[in-house]
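Per reviewer request, we include the raw input and output of the structure prediction for the construct analysed in the revised manuscript.
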Amino acid sequence: MKLLLSIDMKNYKTDGTMVERPSARGIFIKDHKIAMIHSLEYDYYKFPGGGIKKGESQTDALIREVREEAGLIVIPDSIKEYGYVHIIEKGNKEDIFVQDNYYYLINCDENIVPPELDEYEKEEKFTLEFVLPTYAMAVNMKCVNDLKKMMMIDREDRVLALLLKDHYFDWYYILKVFIFNLLYIIGGIRFFVSTKFS
C-alpha cells in the first residue's frame, strides 16, 4: 500500500518504550458525498474505522470497525487500497506511539444496521453522516480540542484533501452546491435587511 503521509511529531524520547497500534479506515463515496462519523459532542468529522486487533487482518478489521462505528455493511469484493498514513508521537502512557492508518476505498450495502459503539464513542455521540468533503474539512478547521484530537482531525483533513486532489469527487458538483449556498445566504441577508430597515 502506498504511503500517503508521514507525520513525525518529534515530541518523544527516542530511547523510550514504544507501542504500535495500526488501524483500518473506510472511504465510502456515494452521490458526491462521503460517509463520515460526526462527533456531535465535539463537532468534528472522522473516517469510520479503528484499531486492528491482534491476529486480525486489515480488511477484517475494516469490515468490523465500519459496521461497529457507522452501521455500514462493507461489500468485501469492493475493497480497494487507497494508502496509509504513518504517525509517530508521544503516547499517553508509553514514550513513543506509532500508528499506521490504512485507508481503503469501499462500497457498502444499501441497508444500514444499528452501530455498536463503545463507551467513549457513545460519550462523543458518534453519528454517521454523508457530507461533502469540503464541508467536513470546514467543520474540522473550527474544532479546537486536546492535542490528540487535533492531530487526528488534521490527519483526516489531509486525507480528504488528497481524495479531492486525486479527483474522487466531482468538483463541478461541489462548486455548484457552494454557489447555491452562497446565493441562499446572500438572499437571506437581503431579506433580513429589507424587512428590518424598510
